[in-house]
């Protein structure tokens, strides 16, 4: 080989080496060829799931080219997870598990991407350590940080695991108060709701949330007194929406909605997250407290918050019931709106029939006994539409007698206009003979 040929060969080698070093995403270090050899070797062993054989060349890369590429830590986790699963030696299993988790830490150290890597690490750490009490403080700290940096990107399975980590840590004497448990539970529940709102699998998320709810009640003693005395003061101080959601859900669950705190929490939740069920709850509570204006306002809001006609019908009937004591005509209008949304709502017909039955004293004029008893004819027709035979019989027993009809020169079957606020035309009938 002459000097010119040697020079060209050397130049080509230098250029090739430089190109290799400059390869995007890879930092081969000073020993490029050896690093490539070790990388190819261990990668083949990983593909073959020959975990033991992969350790040697992989360890060389960790020591000599720690910033080679994120793949050495991704595959490193696979190697040590595979080793942990394939050995029956408990000491070795623990050693391999710790090495697997170390791969996640080194990946963050050299290549950042903390959120995604901690998401993965938390998932693996929970699998390894959920049954090891001595690891609970470490596991608790890991999940706190992983949740903090991920938020709605936290794996849904990790969210459930997070609540279980809190439960295990708390029940084994961990340094976490009941209030902190509730705060974290609220954050987890709120994250589930956000994931669902962003198109997540609603059925799957609801199943996860049911599990989380059960873990909460297994972690701290939840009763009405606790909610009111422990969570109430903080809510009054902060008016925090997340806390309001937790309080309202727990008060529904514990059946303590008679406490004013339930109404206060519901109002705050509904301001930021309008909901059919909550609006209906507010309306019903307001009605029970005699606040008819607020009741009507929230019944109407509830109607706006659902596309389900049967629910709309149910709400308008509830509104009608709150109006019955002050305006029978207004109550009937609401009941008719209930029927407009759901003509099969038999309770609405019964309600209107009851309004008519109870209007005799209000509407009688004392001039015509037949006309005064027209309210019972009108009631009968409503009960008939509802198919309520018992009420039909009660109304029919109050029809005018055949003597009363004859004495007023009227005939059975003719039309009779019922006046007063009812203003209905009915078919005249007589009551059954005794």
Describe this structure in words.
It is a single chain. The protein has 434 residues and is an all-alpha fold. The chain is built from 23 helices and two strands. The chain is elongated and about 120 Å long. The model is unreliable at 1-22 (pLDDT under 50). The protein has a two-stranded antiparallel sheet. Helix 18 (346-357) runs antiparallel to helix 21 (374-386). Among the domains are: 275-344, Serine Threonine Protein Phosphatase 5, Tetratricopeptide repeat (Alpha Horseshoe), CATH 1.25.40; 346-434, no CATH class. The protein has helices at 3-21, 32-47, 51-64, 71-86, 90-111, 114-129, 136-150, 156-171, 178-197, 202-219, 224-238, 241-253, 260-272, 276-288, 292-304, 309-323, 328-341, 346-357, 360-363, 369-372, 374-386, 389-396, 402-407; strands spanning 415-418, 424-427. 73% of the residues lie in helices and 2% in strands.
Q: Termini separation (Å)?
A: 134 Å
Rounded to the nearest angstrom, the radius of gyration is 37 Å
Described by the principal axes of the CA atoms, the overall outline is: elongated
- Class by helix and strand content? mainly alpha
Order of helices and strands: HHHHHHHHHHHHHHHHHHHHHHHEE
Hey, roughly how much beta strand do the residues contain? under 5%
What is the averaged pLDDT score?
90
Unreliably modeled segments: 1-22
- Helix proportion: over 70%
- Number of separate strands: 2
Number of helices: 23
Order of strands, main sheet, comes to 1-2
In a nutshell, what does this entry contain?
This protein has 434 residues and is mostly helical.
